TrEMBL record:
Residues 56-108 form the UspA domain. It holds the Pfam family Usp. The lineage of its organism: Bacteria, Pseudomonadati, Pseudomonadota, Betaproteobacteria, Burkholderiales. Belongs to the universal stress protein A family. InterPro entries: Universal_stress_UspA, UspA. This is Universal stress protein. SUPFAM superfamilies: Adenine nucleotide alpha hydrolases-like (SSF52402). PANTHER family: STRESS RESPONSE PROTEIN NHAX, UNIVERSAL STRESS PROTEIN HP_0031. Transmembrane segments: none annotated. It comes from the Bacteria. Gene3D superfamilies: 3.40.50.12370.
Amino acid sequence: TDALPLLRASARVTLAVYQRRRHNGAHGVQPGADIALYLARHGVKVEVQQNTAGPNEDVGNALLSLAADSGADLLVMGAYGHQRWRELVLGGVTRRVLQSMTLPVLMAH
C-alpha cells in the first residue's frame, strides 16, 4: 500500500512473478492474481508477467534486467530477510537488488 499513489499515476505497471517451477497457487489461482486484483481494485493498470527461474538463476538480476528491458523508471518490491545462515546458502533477491540497482527502488518490509 505504500506505493499505491505512485502505481496509480503510472501508465503501466508490470507485476513480475518468479517461480523455480511453474505451478498454480491455492485453488488453481495463478500466482500474482490476488495482488493484481487488489491493485486493479485500487485503480492501478496492471499486467502480470509469469517467469520461471532456473535453479541457478539469480532472481534479483532477472528483476533488474526486466526493469531495464521494459524501460521501467521505478522498481517496487517487498523486502524479505532470511536467517543469516539461510541467506548465505540461498542468496537473496533483496540483497542482490540493493547491491546492483540501476534504477530507483521502493522496498517495503
